[in-house]
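#random but structural
TW: two for the price of one
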Amino acid sequence: MSTPLLELKNVCNAYGSIQVLHDVSLHVNAGEIVCLIGANGAGKSTLLMSIFSSPKITQGEILYNGVDVAAIAPHHVARLGIAQVPEGRRIFPGMTVEENILIGTLPIGMQHAEEDKAEIFALFPRLKERRNQRAGTLSGGEQQMLAMARALMARPDTILLDEPSLGLAPLIVKQVFEILKDITSLGKTIF
């Protein structure tokens, strides 16, 4: 049996006195797509944000490639090979599509930006068409693709996706999930 790429052991977390996560344990192996399913308010987003120490867990361990990431700064977690696509996409609406994509290089620097941008535009041809358009004018599906593209620019091994189908039409959801399969074929792990 292989060592998990991402492993959570008895993770607890709270917002003030409100306990949100209770002894969560799970693992994600390299190359997998793992889905976490639960009701609204069950703590899914908190769990994903906790991997980036925001908020810091109150108990347990979060290991990535055997490194305990629970107590390190979010930008250091990103440099270990994890990228996050937050719920609601959180793009920069006043910036262009291309500027939003380049923001994804912040954890690793710009040395591979042009090469990676070409790969992103091959994976997301619609974004290439709209590269000079303000991101806030994109459709919801295009914004979701932009958020995923931005995450990929950090050259992660693992991508944390929070509610990737939120507010999207069924046809667009299908397109997004097809792209996720393409991303895993590039050797990425998706949680």
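TW: number two ↓
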Amino acid sequence: MSNAQRFSQIDRLKAKLDSYRPLSAAVLANLHENLVLNWTYHSNAIEGNTLTLKETKVALEGITVGGKTLREHFEVINHREAILFLEEQVQNKTPISEWLIKSLHQLVLKNIDNDNAGQYRRNNVIISGAEHTPTDAVQVPEQMQQFVAWATQQAPNLHPVEAAARIHGELVKIHPFIDGNGRTSRLLMNLVMMQAGLPATVITVEQRLDYYQALDTAHITGDYQPFIELVCQAATKSFAPYWWALGVKE
């Protein structure tokens, strides 16, 4: 299947979902609770958080899970706050900016690493297991300015799913923060998706190996095709909870 066919399939699913809008408050509330849980669980699990899906649900309810670190609990609470902040920016049609990216990152690392939360890294880093070496720390501010210019001026010319995938990939390539780059990039990816009227897309922990390999391929060779395909698959699956909640067949 070509990219054009994948995008066309997603566009058809969006048109079908749009035909059922506006959704009832009860359906929206149920879908939102499910989304926050799954998005938080999978995004944190990809980064090594050991809380299970059920433990994540409990942590979101404010209950401490025995035997788990304080950091893992903060990662859950912080991620929900970041989602709620992101949803406000979607409603306000806030464009991508360095302020927005730093604000998301600040929420991701709040109470975990307050010195570095919302701050570009000042040291060079190596990503374990990846062939790609991120940008030199001294070049991060300049590369972030270039990234935002591209994301706001050129990326909107692409299909929203391709734009979201490339924005995610390019931000991770720069790796502007000492920690929390993956979570911040997946949040930013969904800003693009949601502002285009698409459901938030959750990349699952089960896709972790393919996800890392596709990102590394994009960063080393510039070939985004495997990563775009992966994001398209995840975006297509993101409609399933809506069909279930609405009681309609896919």
